[in-house]
Amino acid sequence: MAFPSYLVPNLWTLSLLTLLAASVQSNLIVFDDDPLQPVTQDETASVGGMVTLTCRVAASDNSSLQWSNTAQQTLYFGEKRALRDNRIQLNRSTGTELSITIGNVQLSDEGEYTCSIFTMPVRTARATVTVLGVPDKPQISGYEDTVQEGGKVTLTCTSSGSKPPAKLRWYRNQEELTGRPDVVETNPDEATYTVISELTLTVGRSDDNTLIGCAVDHPSLSPGEKWTEQPIRVLFTPDVTIQPQNDLPREGEKFIIQCIGNGNPKPTSYVWQKKDGELPLMAKVDASFLLFEMLNKSDNGVYLCQADNGIGKMQGEYTLLVQDLTDDSNNLFPTSFYLPSFSPTSDSPSSSLSPDSFPTLMSTTSGSGSSASGSLPASSPPTIFSFSVPYPSDLTFPLLLPLLHPSLPLLSLPLLLLSMFYPPLFPTLSSLTFPCLPNAIPPPLTPSPPLLPPLFPLLLPALLLPLSLLPPPPTPSLPPQLPYG
């Protein structure tokens, strides 16, 4: 039976209205969650680790929960073990929860696990277990021997057993470097991967003893957990510096300079030269040392040292500028002592004693003590030597010189102490002269404030009284001048 053509649009309209009403009715219906529907979640574990599978329902109707593996083998039905696998253990079992653990997880444990509750109808839920293949410790190869400065070295880092493929990172002393893109290879016997990375470096002297590291980046590892390092040795020419023994070379002193060569290997040969001249005759070469037994201003100049370590030769230089000796007025003892060529007599009680009229008796070097030379004839009477005493004022001793008697050598010591303890009494004293004592070297003297000033008027006459009772000294006959040495 055919429908009239005018009725066709009405049928289409009726159909659309029916669908619209059904849609509105469905939107008005609210479906509550099924309290008996099991709920699970996906888990991830590393090879050798442990994973926990938990299945829950909101309400219980006394039906049992069940876990099945990827092959649909029942693992646990409620509290009852169904599969004899000691790695799988019951963790918790109640009317609304069933929880089990799988220990020593293997790659074969990966897959979908099913939780079921036997109601009418049976309700199920699935959980996916992902097993991570733990990568092996990386190995670095390609370095065989030392590399000369400016050369290239190519290192290869390899790590196997990762799943998913690991990422390799290069480091130089904790600074990340960029290597070639990783090469990933599949292991035929298991679903794991081998990752290979290469790094090419142009090395310099700063890379000597540098540690080149390769680290594995993988979800199964914490950062830096698996790491290996390869030290690099670089051969390079030495850097040369010349180090002086001290910063103030003085004329007459011993002086040493050292040639220091920092290279790999260490320098084995040193050549010393003086720029624009020959080495001084008093200079001695001892490998990396240049020794001056006694500095002279003629030693001034630029000294060159060439160090050779078999890889190359480098040269350093040092400018030597010899300084003058320090002034005696700043020292407790002078650099020279003088022995008079005559003894004072009654005819010349105030004879001028100047260094120019004395032969040298003793000389000292800074910080090294003193040595004496020369001797007196056995018939010589007690003689006088002079030394400088550091004191703030300009001191001279012309007034006390007539008071000293050659027969009383110990008398000068109290006077010396008085001059130090009572400086106001000797306002013009700069040098003290007293009889020469055997091996007599005065101790260091330090200016002090006057001690017991009221006692001095009583002490001074007691010291001077013996002088009036002594006969005048005999007049000796001495040669005109003592020979040197």
UniProtKB/TrEMBL annotation:
Keywords of the record: Disulfide bond, Immunoglobulin domain, Membrane, Repeat, Signal, Transmembrane, Transmembrane helix
SUPFAM superfamilies assigned to the protein according to its UniProt record, in alphabetical order: Immunoglobulin
One Pfam family from the record: Ig_3
Membrane topology recorded in Swiss-Prot or TrEMBL: Single-pass membrane protein
Region annotation Disordered: where it falls in the sequence: 349-375
Domain of life: Eukaryota
Domain named Ig-like: residues: 35-130, 138-233, 238-321
Cellular component terms per the entry's GO annotation: presynaptic membrane
Signal peptide: 1-26
InterPro entries, per database record: CD80_C2-set, Ig-like_dom, Ig-like_dom_sf, Ig-like_fold, Ig_sub, Ig_sub2, Ig_V-set
A biological-process GO annotation: homophilic cell adhesion via plasma membrane adhesion molecules
Cellular compartment(s): Membrane
Protein name: Cell adhesion molecule 3
Organism, scientific name: Oncorhynchus kisutch
Phylogenetic placement of the source organism: Eukaryota, Metazoa, Chordata, Craniata, Vertebrata
Gene: LOC109875226
